[in-house]
Specification:
single chain, mainly beta, 8-stranded mixed beta sheet, two-stranded antiparallel ribbon, 2 helices
Length: 198
C-alpha cells in the first residue's frame, strides 16, 4: 500500500477510476470526476459523466475490498453533490419518505450503506465543485470524504488544574490545560473523491 500522508493513495478516487469516461484529452491521476445526475428513463451510462450514486457505490466497493466493516460507514458531502443527488432521485432526500430534515448535518441514514452528512467545510480547489465541464479538471474541483467509525480515534483530557484568587472579586479562578489529539487507526477505511459538476 502506498500512502500520501496518512492516507492510502489508492483511496483517492479521481477520473481514472471510472472506465466509462471518454474525456477529451487523457485523464490523469488527480483529475476530478465530471458528475451529473442520471436522469429518469436513462438506459445507458453516460460516456462523459458519472452519476453521484455511482461514485458512492464505488466508494462502498473499495471499502468492501479492503475488508472494512459495513456497520458504521459514513460519507460527508458538500451542497453541490447533495443537489445532484436530489436531482437524481427527488424521493431520496424527501422528508415524506422517512427522513426528518437535517439533524446535526445528517441528511440520510442509508445510501449504499453510508450515513450521509452535509458540510460546507469540505476541501475544494480553485473555483470549487460547481465548476462545469466534462473535460478533466485538475485545478477546479470539490472533495467528498467517506469513512468508517473505527477509522479515526480522538482523545482528550484535562492535564493540569490550578486555582488562584481573583484579584477583582471574592472568588477563586480555576484554570486547566486541555490536551486533545486524533489518530487515523485504519487508513484503508478512509476515502476521498475529487469531482466537479459537469
Amino acid at each position: 500500500m502506498t500512502a500520501t500522508g496518512e492516507y492510502i493513495t489508492a483511496n483517492h478516487l479521481d477520473a481514472t477510476d471510472f472506465g466509462n469516461l471518454t474525456i477529451s484529452g487523457s485523464a490523469t491521476a488527480g483529475d476530478s470526476v465530471p458528475l451529473a445526475p442520471r436522469l429518469p428513463g436513462a438506459t445507458a451510462l453516460s460516456a462523459t459523466t458519472v452519476s453521484p450514486l455511482t461514485v458512492l457505490a464505488r466508494m462502498a466497493r473499495k471499502m468492501d475490498q479492503a475488508n472494512v466493516e459495513s456497520r458504521g460507514r459514513w460519507v460527508v458531502l458538500d451542497p453541490v453533490f447533495i443537489e445532484m443527488l436530489k436531482d437524481e432521485d427527488s424521493r431520496m432526500l424527501n422528508a415524506d419518505f422517512g427522513g426528518a430534515g437535517l439533524q446535526n448535518g445528517l441528511v440520510l441514514n442509508n445510501v449504499h450503506g453510508f450515513r450521509v452528512y452535509q458540510s460546507n467545510a469540505l476541501p475544494a480547489a480553485g473555483t470549487g465543485a460547481g465548476t462545469s465541464g466534462t473535460t478533466a479538471q485538475s485545478t477546479n474541483y470539490g472533495v467528498i470524504v467517506a469513512g468508517q467509525d473505527d477509522a479515526v480515534a480522538s482523545a482528550e483530557q484535562i492535564n493540569k488544574v490550578e486555582n488562584y484568587r481573583d484579584p477583582d472579586s471574592f472568588a477563586d479562578i480555576v484554570r486547566g490545560m486541555h490536551l486533545y489529539g486524533r489518530k487515523i487507526l485504519r487508513p484503508e477505511a478512509l476515502l476521498t473523491a475529487r469531482y466537479n459538476a459537469a
